[in-house]
Amino acid sequence: MAKSKPDARRPDMTHSSRRLLLLALAIAAIAGLIWRYSRPQPIPVVLHTVTLGRVEASVANTRAGTVNACRRARITPSASGQVIKLLVHKGDRVIAGQLLLELWNEDARAQLHLAEQDATAAQARIEEACVQADNATREAHRQHILQDKKLVSTDSVERADTEAKARAASCRAARANAEVSSARIDAAHAALARTQLRAPFAGVVAELTGELGEFITPSPPGIPTPPAIDLVDDSCLYVTAPIDEVDAPRLKTGMPARITLDAFPGEHFSGHVRRVAPYVLDREKQARTVDVEVEFNTTADTKALLTGYSADVEIILETHDKVLRIPSAALLEGNQALVFNADDKRLHTQRIEAGLSNWEYTEVRSGLADGARVVTSLERDGVKEGAYVTVDTTPGSTDTQ
Q1: Residue closest to 197 by CA, chosen among 69, 90, 81, 111
Q2: Torsion of CA 301, 304, 307, 313, to 10 degrees
Q3: Are 400 and 47 in contact (CB under 8 A)?
Q4: Rounded distance, CA 371 to CA 344, Å?
Q5: The pLDDT value given to residue 32
Q6: What CA–CA distances, in Å, run from 149 to 91, 138, 154, 160, 195?
Q7: What pLDDT does residue 1 have?
Q8: Which pLDDT does position 15 carry in this prediction?
Q9: Which range, of 129-138, 237-246, 389-398, averages the lowest pLDDT?
Q10: CA 375, 381, 386 angle in degrees (round to 5)?
Q11: What does pTM read for this prediction?
């Protein structure tokens, strides 16, 4: 039997198959690279996990408010004169009634001394006149006894009675003169007090205008002049802040409030509304506002504060606790939110029913479940329905709650 000859084309076919395989692999690699570099890049987004918490409805001031003292007195002696005693400095703490400043008052002191001496003399005249009145009364009594015994005449008795009445009148006149002398002492004390400046309440000396040896004078009517001393009672502070007239009807005294100050960033102070002004301020080029006073709840919170600090207030109108909430920054127009789908890593629009809301949080009544994650970085380019995203891994940005 004849042997078959080997096929001379087989090596060529094997070589061709390899070439085709390599070409296919190259095409696949190129296609993979094209797909890899042409596919859309994921957009990093900041997410917030929907959880239970507190949501408050509140209003805030339209312009910066100011920390004020409950009591503040800009005081000057009621008399004019030269300062001979200056007993305090800026920043000194004083007690109620403490002498702060004194003007030259030698004339007033001399008048006081004179009034006191006159009062002493008046007291001596009282003693003299009233002793004589007592003697005259006793003498008249004796004359009546002797008359009953027919030992003296009627004329003697009448003279004794008249003398007793005259002496009694002299005693009363002396007592009245003593009261006049006492009143002169009070007047002299008042004149002296007009040259002295005393603290009307305990506080701290904020400003000091008068200097030792200077002449100071009270303000003439209608012409304000700087006070000698500005005294502040910093044991009680409050904030005055303007609230838009639209929000004013909802405000009532006693409502809780939060106070923030630029001087203490990151800190909140609790307070309450103590007064809502009964009128609207209409100032040119400014929105119409109502001044609201918010008092600090805790005196200890005010120890490090200074009057004049700028402050903001947030007045709480209504509170809902343990409700689903999302950051108000996550809301789109029409009460919609972009929800992150972990399976396809894309964003999907979800409409919600919103409840209470403020600048920080909005209550979710329906539309989202506990644990859902919504986008808060809506300002980033490309963040929209269907966007392919990745979670922002920047510290403090990812999956905030």
Answers
A1: 81
A2: -40
A3: yes
A4: 17
A5: 66
A6: 85, 17, 12, 16, 68
A7: 47
A8: 67
A9: 389-398
A10: 60
A11: 0.62
